[in-house]
Design brief:
By secondary structure, the chain is an alpha+beta fold. It has a single domain, classed as SMI1/KNR4-like (3-Layer(aba) Sandwich). The chain has 5 helices and 7 strands; from the N terminus they run αααββαββββαβ. The model has no long low-confidence stretch (mean pLDDT 94).
């Protein structure tokens, strides 16, 4: 499901982490400044999936640590402005992989970048790209410490 409220939207643990980070059902933030700033160089475009995600989760800082399911739990911040200087990286990977990637923040205090595709797939972006999944499941995976799946480069 893509970011719409339902009774069992998140596991109890993930909902607790999100609420502790400032999220609540129905949360809405203005994305205008992020759109204007990141689209200024013409390299990336805030598509509908990015706007919907950032309207609900933009600005959250999730402080995590310790062991996870298949990787360490790492802090992340959903602030696209933090990756303003990396729009070329998102544009290049998006073109290379055939997807429209929009920056949404940082993972592990800037060690990795986070982006979202037009299909609501949340990806780790570095010198390689990996998928945390789509929609709410991607947030579950980020918070619970599930390793993302590396997206192979097209041949």
């Amino acid at each position: 499901m893509m970011w719409g409220w339902r009774m069992t939207r998140f596991s109890a643990e993930v909902e607790h982490v999100l609420r502790s980070s400032g999220w609540e059902p129905g949360r809405r933030v203005d994305t205008t400044a992020w759109r204007r700033t990141l689209e200024a160089d013409g390299l990336v475009h805030m598509h509908e999936a990015a706007e919907r995600f950032l309207t609900e989760f933009g600005g959250l800082r999730v402080n995590l640590g310790g062991g996870g399911v298949s990787r360490a739990r790492e802090p992340f911040e959903l602030n696209p402005g933090d990756v303003e200087s990396e729009t070329d990286r998102f544009a290049d990977w998006g073109t290379h992989l055939g997807m429209n990637l929009f920056p949404i923040g940082e993972l592990d205090r800037g060690r990795y970048f986070l982006g979202i595709s037009e299909h609501a797939e949340i990806v780790l972006v570095e010198t390689w790209v990996a998928s945390f999944g789509t929609g709410d499941a991607a947030l579950e995976n980020l918070i619970l410490g599930v390793a993302p799946e590396v997206i192979p480069e097209p041949s």
